[in-house]
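Exercise 7b. Backbone tokens:
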């Protein structure tokens, strides 16, 4: 009870002191008083206001992505990549005030058989999986041998679900397939056993040899635009739609751009 009484008296004394300072004190004395007693309160308040202001500004100025793609193993100069992007935007314009496009060329991956790149490829797979899980990728361009491996991770969309019959017929010479029946077999394998199993993936250009062929990607090696991104190589390159990509129609525009 005595402690409570002392607290009340102390509070009253402080209140009287505040009244005295603000009633009779100079402007400098008032500012010094506020700073002495409320310095940390003001600092925290300023930080909170700055954080809230930054969040509001970010939300108001953030742009939606009209298209987001990943190009694996690109070693082209930055200027060439920017020119590639601008060329596409010129032919298929977007509202640049509210939209943007992202072409990610930072990831490097080689097929599993090339043991020297295991660590790099593993890191790339982690990054790629995270981006796909977050819905941040619409399409993937890479060496067909890489796409063939990734196909059986169920990253890619069945092209018959995104392209019309007319479009499938138009690009039938570029279509590449995977064997869905093999995917069912992979479900039955116990990889935790530690056995190193050699899995032979079928040739994506030969659906007639597959039990259940599904169109899963398109070869774009004949595109001069792809040749500019992947110069001095004799590899075959393909494009695949990411299964949860949001901008499917814009990816079709991108395909038209590549093959035009």
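Sequence design result:
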């Amino acid at each position: 009870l005595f402690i409570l009484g002392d607290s009340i008296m102390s509070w009253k004394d402080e209140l009287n002191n505040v009244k005295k300072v603000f009633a009779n004190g100079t402007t400098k004395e008032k500012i010094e008083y506020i700073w002495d007693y409320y310095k940390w309160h003001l600092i925290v308040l300023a930080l909170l206001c700055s954080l809230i202001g930054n969040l509001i500004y970010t939300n108001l100025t953030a742009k939606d992505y009209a298209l987001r793609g990943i190009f694996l193993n690109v070693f082209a100069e930055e200027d060439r990549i920017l020119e590639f992007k601008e060329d596409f935007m010129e032919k298929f314009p977007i509202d640049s005030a509210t939209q943007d496009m992202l072409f990610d060329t930072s990831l490097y991956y080689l097929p599993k058989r090339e043991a020297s790149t295991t660590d790099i490829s593993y890191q790339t797979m982690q990054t790629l999986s995270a981006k796909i899980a977050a819905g941040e990728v619409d399409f993937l361009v890479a060496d067909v041998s890489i796409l063939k491996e990734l196909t059986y991770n169920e990253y890619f969309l069945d092209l018959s679900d995104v392209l019309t019959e007319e479009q499938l017929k138009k690009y039938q010479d570029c279509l590449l397939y995977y064997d869905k029946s093999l995917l069912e077999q992979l479900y039955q394998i116990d990889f935790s056993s530690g056995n190193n199993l050699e899995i032979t993936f079928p040739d994506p250009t030969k659906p007639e040899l597959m039990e259940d062929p599904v169109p899963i990607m398109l070869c774009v090696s004949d595109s001069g635009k792809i040749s500019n991104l992947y110069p001095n190589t004799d590899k075959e390159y393909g494009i695949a739609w990411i299964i949860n990509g949001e901008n499917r129609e814009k990816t079709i525009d991108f395909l038209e751009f590549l093959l035009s």
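Instructor comment: The beta strands are 64-71, 99-104, 139-143, 175-179, 213-219, 237-241. Residues 162 and 248 are 7 Å apart (CA to CA).
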